[in-house]
């Protein structure tokens, strides 16, 4: 399956927001799309931090930023799912 263009994604997100505002989401498709998009922004930060960490020669500062990005992505997931995970340490 191909990735939607930026315009297609923006349109889909606007339609999903509109569906949620009108409470016209009987199969939770709009809710799912909005949640996936919200979480994907944090997962993209994890990917960026991981790439930077690997390309930096595994530096301590980059490792800390990677762990922080992972913990943030987990906290966003926990908040939206109303559950919890153990945080990663900085070791």
Distance between the first and last residues' Cα:
39 Å
Number of domains: 1
Mean pLDDT: 92
**Helix-strand pattern, N to C?**
HHH
Overall spatial form: elongated
Structural class: mainly alpha
User: Helix proportion of residues, in percent?
Assistant: over 70%
Question: What does the main sheet amount to?
Answer: none
| Rg (C-alpha, Å) | 17 Å
Report the β-strand fraction as a percent range: under 5%
Q: What's the total count of β strands?
A: 0
Q: How many helical elements?
A: 3
Question: Low-confidence runs (pLDDT<50, min 5 residues)?
Answer: none
Q: Oligomeric form of this entry?
A: single chain
Q: What would you say this structure looks like, in words?
A:
The protein is mainly alpha-helical. The protein has one domain. Helix content is 71%, strand content 0%. It contains three helices and no strands. Helix 1 (6-21) crosses helix 2 and helix 2 (29-55) runs antiparallel to helix 3 (60-81). The longest helix is centred in the middle third of the chain and has 27 residues, at 29-55. The mean pLDDT is 92.
């Amino acid at each position: 399956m191909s990735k939607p263009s930026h315009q297609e994604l923006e349109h889909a997100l606007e339609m999903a927001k509109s569906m949620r505002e009108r409470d016209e989401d009987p199969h939770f498709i709009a809710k799912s799309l909005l949640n996936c998009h919200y979480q994907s922004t944090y997962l993209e930060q994890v990917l960026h931090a991981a790439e930077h960490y690997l390309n930096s020669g595994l530096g301590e500062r980059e490792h800390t930023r990677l762990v922080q990005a992972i913990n943030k992505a987990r906290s966003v997931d926990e908040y939206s799912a109303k559950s919890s995970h153990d945080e990663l340490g900085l070791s």
